## 1
Amino acid sequence: MSDPIDDLLDAAESGKSIIKNRDILHFTYIPEKIQHRKTEQEQVTQALLPILKQHRPSNLLVYGEPGTGKTLVIRTVLRKIQKRVEKSNFPIKLVYTNSKDETAIYGLLVSLGRQIDLNEAELPGNGLAISEVFNRLLKKIDNEKLNVIFVIDEIDYLAKLVQKTGKDILYQLTRANERLKQGSLSLVGVSNDLTFKENLDPRVISSLGEEEIVFRNYNVEQIKKILEERINDAFLENSVEIGAINRCAALAGGEHGDARRALDLILKAGEIAERQQSDKVTDQHVSEASQKMEEQLVKSTLEAFPLHKKLVILAIMRSKGSSTGEIYSSYKNLCKLVGRDELTNRRVKQMLSEIDVSGIITGKIISQGSHGSTKKFTLEIATETIKNAFKDDLTLQDIV
């Protein structure tokens, strides 16, 4: 009787690998030439040009949907500026952080501090007041006459942290130059959300968005060209069928204009083809990859829901009917089973609307003739997907 692990390892060792370099398909990879973003590259470069002439650039906001090349263009421009300023005596620091990677404002400021060479003794990883952290950052910039360009990717997450904590670090950052006698601090904010400024202090908006650039979505043909270029370097020659490329471009371009999703899709499709010991990536492999990625996205969304939203979803799954009243009745029973206090009917109705937006359930108004109308909810995903997502939640294990 053969060993299944050895069988798979033998197949992997003896089988043909069609992917040469996975890194080229990763969103952090910076190609030599960025396609279909000439105008945006010029705009970002022009906004940051003053630093080369030893002047402070204006603060810059860059908007666009995910996968439209914002971070790629900014990183490329910064890298080329860095090469040029290394030859001069003008002290420039180009700093990058993603606020989504930081769970607190403190961590984001420490990330900035480390990149301008503040060590643990000068700026500990915890224990100081936010105001003191900020003072130490400014002191470093002032003493060493640094000219800092601080790129905050996904700045909308920082804006949400500011709202939650009441510590308006964005206001302090945009006013930093008023406190600096020497050196300067410029901000480049990158956001997937064009509306995030609506909840900011008007004083922050006026200074943060001194210049603004919007990145438009890629169309299907542009995504196809991007794929072809990356595939040439990432895969063996002639190992990806044109039908697979077309399908990737159509799926990504038709939904979001998201080049990152297209690259993820072709990589996942290539991995599926390799597992099946196929010599070529086909459109069928892309379809399988798309389905797996969608399932993983739904699973991740479900896992991230707070307990009571999970209970509401289980109530929909368990209730004989699917009206709001029946769902609430089932939800209350589930709360008793897990020993938690139930939320109000009104709050559960709000949750149903929130979950509806995610696409996991669908709500429809159903006419009941002389009895008026009611809203009924149905699941848009398989019950097995829900069980799989909730099985590791200790509170729900007995129910699931």
Note: The beta strands are 60-64, 92-98, 147-153, 184-191, 211-215, 361-367, 373-379.
## 2
Amino acid sequence: MACYGGSCFPKDVRALLAMARENVLPARLLSAVHDVNEEQKHVLTTKLRNALGGELRDRVIAVWGLAFKPNTDDVREAPSLVLIRNAIAAGATIRAYDPQARETARALLGDTARKVTFCDSADAACTDADALVVVTEWLEFRSPDFTALAGKLRARVLVDGRNLYDPRAVRAAGLHYEGIGRSV
């Protein structure tokens, strides 16, 4: 299961929860939706850490996609920012690419942005990286050359946060594949 982001839905869920509390009404379903979404934002980090043997320290992670959805520069509540903060806190280096959201991500990351290399292309983000995490389903990310990626990624790990790829095709190219909600 993926998580939701953006500016509207997360804000609306929080507002409904606040209204329920103010009126002393049970809102178990809304609370569960909110809690599960917050937990889901950390799933990419967990999958990445596990695929890299349990440790992110001194690893270089390529991130494709910063916006919460394609065709926007909106990074509010974006899972990419949680992944980046978690990975940097664990000692990783980040090389990120997004066709539109570089500057909005840089602004929202604040001081953390100084620890991120914002790349000019998806290919550049993968240069010297150990693993790739695909966070936003931009059209340009839909059909990568998996064999070329396998040659670039030192640990040969691809975490597909949007289930864009056929796991068999990724594995056939020599990459370790992690998707969301898919059996291994």
Note: The chain has eight helices and six strands.
## 3
Amino acid sequence: MKKKSLLLIVMMFVLTSLSTINAQEKKKLIGDYLSISGWMNIQYDYESQLQNGGESLDVIANTFNVRRARLDFKGNLCENVEFRVQGDLAGTPKLVDGFVKVKLQKYFNIQVGQFKIPFTFENPQSPLTLEGIEYAQVISKLSGYSDISGVKTYSGGRDVGVMIYGDLFSFEHNGKEIPILTYKLGVFNGNGMNNKDANLAKDIAGSIEVCPGIKGLMLATSYYNGNYKLDNTFEINDTTKLHFYEQNALRNRLTFGGKYENGRLTVRSEYIMGDTEMANKEGIYTLKSDGFYVTGGYWFNIMKSQRIRPVARYDFFRQDVNNPEKNSTYYMVGIDWWPYKNLRLLLNYTMKDKPGFDYMGNLWQAQLSVKF
């Protein structure tokens, strides 16, 4: 009932706010309220892994790939109503973002449509600003990219729903107002991008970010409470099968993190834990997972318009906290180079300590990003 009440209240605010737009306002040219931009990620991956015993080399990847090719439309219908439509033409064309923001006050605003859920620091971050080419393992596995629940939905950390957000309290620094507390609270389908809900339940995601009086320093916690459709069949013997058809299974997540950014230095770390109901031959059980990462980088200016940043990340994930053989640790180092304002080159090397292998895996990646 609480989820339904929250959804009804937010929808009433949306309708009320939209009704305040002046219908008699003179028509504007498209260029007055619409901007069009885009960007591409062109990538190369080479990944290798020595088999146990070190007798043979297994090449897992050796490929070029146009990973993303985005077109982005943004605009303002009026002073307090914004919209965004972003599509991806790489692979199968799809809608990535499609939402409307109703800006009422700095402490209360509404967003409706498809967008990134308010969960963790790293999930809402664009690939164009991320320090490395890949998101951390725990972000991918517990934040909707490649969820351990096995839901076959490409979501990119996004979902369809409605969210309220705003800034509370503030302090001044060098004449600028810096919010002390930022909150976000949303209700979502829980079934990823471009999908209707697969069950009658709704998922809730929310975050609180606090700036403790130091510009650039942010502490945060976020929570996700949701359900997904469990659809599995297990053969017990020749005559008996165990069915889990369209049963709701819990998918809950909790995070704690902190980051510091001062224009040159970036340091960020998050710990995420999750409970995911799964099924096997014995029935439904709760898989407990967790992980954390620490990432950092420092910008150096070279010549007039060029910037370069060495980056590094320690990335640890436990898919099953009760089974150490499921642990995996990645060590990444790289270079983030912007030779021009709209051109970026990322070079990453990741050493992977993966379960079930006696030797480290090696992943070499290069990614060229172009903005227009």
Note: The radius of gyration is 22 Å.
## 4
Amino acid sequence: MIKPFSLLLVLLLPGFSQANAQDTIGFENFALPLDTFLYQADPPGTFVSGAVVLPNFFDPTYGFWSGWSLSSMRDTLTPGYGNSFSVISGEGANHSDHYAVTYCSPSCTVRLGASAAGTVILGFYLNNTTYTYLSMRDGDAFAKRFGGETGTDPDFLSVTVHLYRDGELLMDSLVVYLADFRADDAAEDRLLHEWTYTDLSALGGADSILFTMQSSDVGIYGINTPTYFALDNVVVSTPVSARHQNSNIPLSLFPNPARDWITLPSGVGTNPSYRIYDLSGREYTSGSTKLAGSKLDVHALPAGFYLLKIESAFDHWTGKFIIL
């Protein structure tokens, strides 16, 4: 019997810590309608969410893409390449609508933008796509069913994470298993089907990441298993010394209490990103807005007390508001 599993990691470096402020970057700022995807970056070459940059290549002649795409697809049942943009959990990490999908062939990268100096990537959430998960579970025209006919084949699919720091590729790495059928007892076979956090802090963080994939199912043309996986909620850390001295600024919101909307006050810069939390720390929504003075739609929030966090390149503001 195949069981879900917590992430398996191979760590090869001692721990690391520093005074820092952490942010979790999802991909809600693209505001994709549910059950859609985006595989052509505009402007060409990258998808950008906060400090995180996802390279993208798109060939309009053949409709071919590689690198990263963005998705809000929820199809967990349809097998095959035609459903290559869905995640097997049917939603993003922490129940969000959006996430990223990579076609990692033979490798793919995540990096920080040029304006994110001093920021490091501390971790991220990974999951299997529906296409890859069902291919491993059931087999298809190109790839075998993991475990084979007897269920005892020692199959695996893994992602090796290589770190770049200050532009240099580090020798140390970690390995994430998206599937692991190598145990002697077939009851211990594992297929990842939920979002699971990969912690890079023991490696000291990175300014960019190189992913490579390995599989036990290899043919004359390389890996037979679909080399796709999903990524969400990238955790980045900015050293406190790198932040503006006025980085924690109180925020006055109106109307407060609110029912349907609140307005961003002046002074928060252009293109600020925002996140809304309840008082227990649960994140309800996030995104970005074009200008101060924009109205944020909060009609879907349950009645209660909330925190609004707004961030620009150097500063962040925090305000409290009430939903009636």
Note: The domain at 244-323 is CATH 2.60.40.3080 (Immunoglobulin-like).
